[in-house]
Structures are given as structure tokens and as C-alpha cells.
Amino acid sequence: MINELGGRTSGLRNSRVVIVEDNTDMSSLLSQHLQERGCRVVSFADRESFESADQAGALLESLGGKPDLIILDVILPLRLDPNLKSSGQWMHDTDTRKASPRSYLDPDLGLSIAENIRTGGMRSISRDTMIVFLTARRSGLLSRFVADLGHAWCLNKPITINNVFAALEQALDSVPHRSAADQDRSNAE
Q1: How many distinct structural domains can be found in the chain?
Q2: Which residues of 19-28 are buried (b: 16+ CB within 10 A; e: fewer)?
Q3: Whole domain around residue 87: which residue ranges?
Q4: pLDDT digits 0-9 by tens, 25-42
């Protein structure tokens, strides 16, 4: 099926998607395009807000059920400073030779969140939910971690919307546990 934007919708239509990305411009763009493709989307800018929503049940309520897919930035802040537009912008606007601005971001916080999901530490997310990492890091260790994690993909920044959606559809289509009802929900309309 082709949607009005010219993109395939097979695996995405009616999917429930969580975005955990501290760059608000990127998060907004991804959210907008996902919603235009028929997805229910909820976004978080840091670990604390994501885990608080999970514990309070707000994540399930916002999505109308457990998420099908999580888009997760690898390098995240524990808590985003509300005075900043995005930590990505803050880092680029700051002299990166100084230690304090760079210490604001944790280079492995996204990986820690993923491990928490896989070990059952998130009450509203299934352990085998597909995770698509977004990262500016390119390393063999990261690739191995993603491979060992299972049900996970990794996209290197900079990204294009077409590349993201091709990967998201492939990722969702590759999940063997998706039931016939999930497939019907995704292919409805």
C-alpha cells in the first residue's frame, strides 16, 4: 500500500511508537512524519521523563497500548534542561573543548535504557519490543551491542526521513512475534 506521501505503509500504519530523542527538532520531525503515516506517537527528551511516564502508566494511556517500536537516541541526557532548545544544539553552540558542557550528555544512556527494557524493567514495554537506535557514534562495540540485544536496529546520523522510514518498516516487518491482529492493525485502511 502507498500512502498520500508516496511512502509504503505496510509495517507502520497504526503502529504505536515511542521516540526518546533529546534533539527536539529531530524528534518533532520524526513524530510529524510518523503521525502522517498513521502512527500513534509519544516523544520524550530524556531518560527521566520516559521512565516516569512508564511508571505512572501514562505511556500506555498515551499510546492506547504497548508500543510496537521505540526510536532511541544512544547519547542522551538524564534530564533535559528546560531552558535549552535541545542538548544537541547546546553542544554545538558551546566550545566542546570545555569539559562541563560535554559532561551533560551520557554517551551510553540510550544503551542503558535498552538493557532496562530487555530485562523487564519497564512495566509498559514488552521485553522484545523492536528498538531502532539513532546514533552519531560509529563503533564495532555499538554494532555488537545492538546485535546481541536482539530485535534492534541502528541508524547512523545524519539521517534522512526516507532512510528512517525504510528502516522502521523493515524493522517492524522483521519482528516474528507480531500476531495476525497486530499485522491487521498495521495494514488497516
Answers
A1: 1
A2: bbbbbbebbe
A3: 16-172
A4: 999 999 999 999 999 999
